[in-house]
Automatic annotation (TrEMBL):
Keyword Repeat: yes
Lineage of the species this protein comes from: Eukaryota, Metazoa, Spiralia, Lophotrochozoa, Platyhelminthes
Pfam family membership, one: CUB
SUPFAM superfamilies documented for this protein: Spermadhesin, CUB domain
Claim: Cell inner membrane is one of the keywords in the record: no
Name this polypeptide is given: Cubilin
Residue ranges of every copy of the CUB domain listed in the record: 289-425, 443-567
Naturally occurring in which organism (per UniProt): Macrostomum lignano
Length: 601
């Protein structure tokens, strides 16, 4: 049987396909997976491929190839370069039969997702399957052999970096009653092209709270986006390190330490012996954790906390933690709820606006209200449920203080409870492998052409909501005869109306560094969201470009992810002045000869 599925998007869209389950039969046999034929008439394997051409020849690009005897441990996503994809499924006449495959498809605006890099046909063998140079290796660390030790990616200490097209599995096997704890000392992979590790298919580390890599991962790390400490919920933990075929500067890999400890460790806050019962809301509540504990940045820079007995249920309790950072220009408090599983949960996993009980977590942030003469307002954000696959991360305002309260009305033996991470950061959670921060100026970062010709940058705390009352400056320094081009692949800031009014909106401006701050042309002010199928783009011919992001004290949004390029002028002899069309796919370039040239990208 041969089946072809054609996906045709509109102009300005991409096709996104997520394979959620694939089983084309046969016991797992990597050599057979790699060496099977691809011809539909003579193949000794069933085959599933994704390409951007309606023909089977080499006229198009191949994005995905899968055959019998292969196994995938997690969801696979592929995104088209243009507006077309063809999925081809071929089954042969032999007795090797599997369950088949299931997938989801979507048509997404081009600026929402970065396209998947096509498979390199020079790397692929003639049958369209990855050759035998693909590396797979499993490393085990057992508690029965050592309670602690070190681990790292292959070639970590060598300049050549880790191998391409590889899959390394690290299995940490504990004893009953133990938990595995890994702590990364260094972590630097190829940055995600989509801005999100969970949707990216580049170099990445998948985390599973079990002894095998089955189902969806509990966490995904990539680029420089990772958790310093990871704790298993049971005795075992598995890391799967996937590498792509790309090699970029700065890919060092990772190294760290591992530990096997008893299930109750130093991160669990036990009942103070002298408290026993306390009155809360006129009720007697047995405390399983501190009623109010303060954690300061000069005591601990980061850590993971959880409710007592996590993940084996919880008692009736009321816990409260207050996190206090240093009062300077850079330090911020970050709380990341990694899992919240309580009774009477809402159907909305990210907010408790529809909570039907008091079993919830509340995070309190402190905002200095400009309209109230500097009065500090405590703003509560409640949560009823947070899944480990979709954590919640909140950053403090310029007042470096956050409070987390966990309240339950009754005990539960079937719900897991609460687990969260705290950290005190200096870089505002801004992405960018090549960023250089001037800490004396606070949220001030520079990107230089002599360090990298392109890269990413983002709003603070991206892809989670940026904090209120913040001004961040991004300086892009180009070489002579270069154009600075900035494209926002994702852009979503709070605004109360279509016009970007500074006092009523969070906004981004851009201008030549020689112009005074605050005098940017209204044409260069961006806010809200771009129209469907379009993206915000800046282009300047200047050796220094300044981008400024400002948030007010009202509401916030996910912010932005940008990509910058330093492009060399094709004819630097012309004296050109660059203009920006803020909501279109066209940028206009006017020369001193009053001639109009239109660039389409």
């Amino acid at each position: 049987m041969t089946c072809n599925y054609h996906f045709r998007a509109l102009a300005g869209e991409r096709v996104r396909i997520d394979f959620e389950a694939i089983d084309l039969g046969g016991a797992e046999n990597r050599s057979a997976c790699l060496n099977g034929g691809s011809s539909s008439g003579s193949s000794d394997q069933d085959r599933l491929t994704v390409a951007d051409s309606e023909r089977d020849d080499a006229s198009g690009s191949l994005y995905f190839s899968f055959s019998s005897y292969c196994r995938f441990d997690s969801k696979v996503q592929t995104v088209s370069q243009e507006a077309y994809f063809r999925v081809k499924f071929v089954s042969n006449a032999d007795s090797v039969i599997g369950q088949g495959f299931s997938a989801r498809y979507g048509f997404v605006a081009r600026h929402k997702l970065q396209a998947t890099r096509p498979l390199d046909r020079d790397v692929l063998s003639a049958n369209g399957i990855l050759p035998n140079k693909v590396i797979e290796h499993t490393i085990e660390f057992r508690s029965s052999q050592s309670k602690q030790g070190v681990f790292s990616s292959v070639n970590y200490s060598e300049s050549k970096g880790y191998p391409r097209l590889a899959k390394f599995t690290y299995r940490f096997i504990g004893r009953p009653g133990e938990m595995a704890h890994i702590r990364f000392i260094d972590f630097r992979l190829d940055g995600p092209v989509t801005g999100s590790c969970s949707s990216d298919q580049g170099d990445r580390v998948l985390v599973y709270y079990s002894s095998s890599a089955l189902g969806n991962p509990n966490a995904v790390f990539c680029g420089t986006q990772y958790s310093e400490s990871v704790y298993s919920t049971g005795p075992h933990l598995t890391l799967v390190f996937h590498t792509d075929d790309r090699l970029t500067l700065g890919e060092r890999g990772f190294n760290g330490n591992y530990y096997f400890t008893e299930r109750v460790d130093k991160h669990e806050l036990d009942t103070p012996k002298d408290q026993g019962m306390v009155a809360t809301d006129s009720k007697q509540v047995t405390l399983g954790c501190s009623a109010n504990r303060e954690i300061r940045s000069d005591e601990s820079s980061s850590g993971v906390l959880h409710s007592p007995n996590y993940p084996d249920g919880y008692q009736q309790l009321h816990c409260s933690w207050t996190f206090l950072g240093r009062a300077n220009k850079t330090e911020r408090v970050v709380l990341e709820i990694q899992e919240l599983d309580v009774e009477s949960r809402t159907t909305d996993i990210s907010t408790a606006l529809e909570c039907t009980s008091k079993d919830q977590v509340t995070i309190t942030k402190y905002i200095e209200m400009q309209m109230s003469g500097g009065k500090v307002d405590a703003v509560d954000k409640p949560f009823c449920e947070v899944r480990s696959s979709r954590p919640v991360r909140i950053m403090s305002t310029r007042i470096p203080k956050l409070k987390l309260s966990f309240y339950t009305e009754k005990a539960s033996k079937v719900r897991r409870g609460l687990r969260f991470k705290y950290s005190f950061v200096q870089d505002f959670g801004i992405l960018g492998e090549h960023k250089m921060q001037n800490q004396s100026l606070g949220c001030h970062f520079e990107f230089h052409s002599n360090r990298a010709s392109s890269g990413n940058f983002s709003s603070p705390n991206y892809p989670y909501a940026y904090p209120e009352q913040l001004t961040c400056t991004y300086i892009f320094r180009a070489r002579p005869h270069e154009i600075t081009r900035i494209e926002f692949t994702n852009f979503d800031t709070e605004t109360s109306r279509r016009a970007c009014i500074p006092d009523e909106s969070d906004f981004v401006t851009a201008d030549d560094c020689s112009r005074p701050i605050g005098l940017a042309s209204s044409q260069n002010v961006l806010c809200g969201r771009p129209e469907r199928g379009k993206a915000f783009v800046y282009k300047f011919q200047a050796t220094c470009v300044r981008v400024v992001f400002v948030s007010n004290d009202r509401y916030n949004s996910p912010g932005f992810l940008g990509v910058y390029y330093f492009d060399r002028l094709s004819n630097p002899a012309l004296n050109r002045r660059m203009h920006v069309d803020r909501l279109t796919n066209l940028a206009y370039l006017q020369t001193t000869f009053d001639e109009l040239i239109v660039f389409i990208f």
